[in-house]
Design goal:
With about 110 residues, the protein is an all-alpha fold. Helices cover about 90% and strands about 0% of the residues.
Length: about 110
């Protein structure tokens, strides 16, 4: 049980780190606004369809932030592999955002 509470503390610390990131804050606001719009237009039942995909956006951003911070720790220099790692993380975020947007559009307009 002690391990469970330590894991919760580490997760909370990670959330606080992410709140310092502008991209995470923007995605969180976007997520809340889009989910509110979906619920207003289609009701709470539509929330079940959109929420998991919105959470995927936050997961992708968390992983991307971890990649970026690790690369920055490893080298302050510009390197093609560092750029590739950061670009791949950014692609993951972009893909998650696009998926969430498509799900929300389906819930709003179909």
């Amino acid at each position: 049980m002690r391990h469970f509470f330590k894991a919760l503390a580490y997760s909370w610390s990670g959330f606080l780190v992410l709140l310092k990131e502008a991209a995470f804050r923007q995605e969180l606001v976007m997520l809340l606004a889009a989910l509110s719009l979906v619920c207003w237009r289609r009701g709470l039942s539509a929330l079940g369809a959109a929420l998991p995909w919105g959470l995927l956006v936050l997961v992708a951003e968390a992983l991307n932030t971890g990649i970026e911070k690790t690369v920055d720790l490893c080298t302050p220099e510009r390197h093609p592999l560092a750029k590739a790692a950061k670009d791949a993380g950014s692609f993951a975020c972009g893909t998650a955002i696009l998926t969430f947007a498509l799900i929300c559009a389906r819930e709003l307009f179909l």
